[in-house]
Amino acid sequence: MQEPIVLLPGMMCDARLYAHQISDLSQDHAVMVAPITQGERISEIASALLPVLPAKFALVGLSMGGIVAMEILRKAPERVTRVALMDTNPLAESPTSAAAYEPWIVGARAGRLEEVLSDFMRPEYLAPGVARTEVLKQVKEMGLTLGADVFVRQARALQRRRDQQSVLRKCKCPALVLCGEHDGLTPVKRHSFMAELIPYAKLEVIPEAGHLPVLENPGAVTAALRSWMRQPFVLK
Predict the structure, then answer these.
(1) What is the residue range of 190's domain?
(2) Is 236 part of any domain?
(3) I need a surface site. Which of 17, 44, 228, 230 has the fewest CB within 10 A?
(4) DSSP label at residue 39
(5) How far apart are CA 25 and CA 8, in angstroms?
(6) For residue 20, what is the domain's CATH number?
(7) pLDDT truncated to tens, each residue of the chain (236 aa)?
(8) Which of 195, 222, 194, 228 is nearest to 209 (CA)?
(9) What gap in Å lies between CA 206 and CA 199, rounded to an integer?
């Protein structure tokens, strides 16, 4: 059996984000979803996960989950056999973008989490079409389940995150960089840039999908992950 697959959800998302991938990949792979809900820094979240993850594993992260995945790759590259970074960003927040989280943090603390979640994940971040409404509903349900305290911790972690470009340049394992073609939050050009940084990366653009292709076009994402899992190991 191949190495286990560890899935890291995006901000304010849980295992429901990866329902299709879990159902399909678990037919012939050991699959686990690791929460990214503990810690007010990305490094703290990664450090809390490493003791409970397998000795070696294939690592998948979407959005904030991808940011945590890059930190795990920085801290323990010898344990990551392959990495898939989806709809994410290797750059640190600018002072302006970091400050943009503050009204959301205030709103979450004031009991307006549902309103905050609606503003945080906007329709224009997703592919156009009627499916947007259902995807946004699923995201809001996951966010409300996790609650305001998790939102505040994750927002603080994102505000303080480091630049991971040097980590990507040092990556020596099979890497998949994946993005929805209509991603309005972390666009395709950002992923082209990421793929160029990683020595052994493959760029995959998912049609009919935006920032959450695992929900918008799940079959295409799962097929891309299966292809990635079939890639031979790159000697380090």
Answers:
(1) 5-230
(2) no
(3) 230
(4) -
(5) 15
(6) 3.40.50.1820
(7) 689 999 999 999 999 999 999 999 999 999 999 999 999 999 999 999 999 999 999 999 999 999 999 999 999 999 999 999 999 999 999 999 999 999 999 999 999 999 999 999 999 999 999 889 999 999 999 999 999 999 999 999 999 999 999 999 999 999 999 999 999 999 999 999 999 999 989 999 999 999 999 999 999 999 999 999 999 875 44
(8) 222
(9) 21
